[in-house]
């Protein structure tokens, strides 16, 4: 299973489409973790699984979603409803409740990936307004059931060399 995960593009429609189109043909799923600030029918997010962030208004997107891709359960939320800027505990409870293998979130604009209690947590950062790093990031997760790799990329498609994470899963 191969997933592109992006978040917090904050109104960047054309720029978002550039990133998605760069990888679209090689992905099993495209995920946007909220704060796109785009309407649900915007061409940039066609075919993308999008959730609602705190800067998204209207009812175009759900607050959370669970996607099953090639037998992998992926939970997606923006994170503001789980207080992810302060703690990952409420998010982890929800991911475990849904039996997710991967939990994707945004909101903090801080790119990170970590493994906890058998769940891979991924925040792709922000392609527009990154925090804690200068790179405007998104990521790709490759997952085969026993092994996963999360690779972060800069907006221009270059790999962020110190942000490649490998996980052995039981």
Automatic annotation (TrEMBL):
UniProt-listed SUPFAM superfamilies: Metallo-dependent phosphatases
Keywords of this entry: Metal-binding
Gene3D superfamilies membership: 3.60.21.10
InterPro entries: Calcineurin-like_PHP_lpxH (IPR024654), Metallo-depent_PP-like (IPR029052), Phosphodiesterase_MJ0936/Vps29 (IPR000979)
Top-rank lineage group of the source organism: Bacteria
Cofactor: a divalent metal cation
EC number: 3.1.4.-
A Pfam family it matches: Metallophos_2
Record domain Calcineurin-like phosphoesterase: where: 1-144
Similarity-based family: Belongs to the metallophosphoesterase superfamily. YfcE family.
Protein name, per record: Phosphoesterase
Source species of the chain: Halalkalibacter kiskunsagensis
Species classification: Bacteria, Bacillati, Bacillota, Bacilli, Bacillales
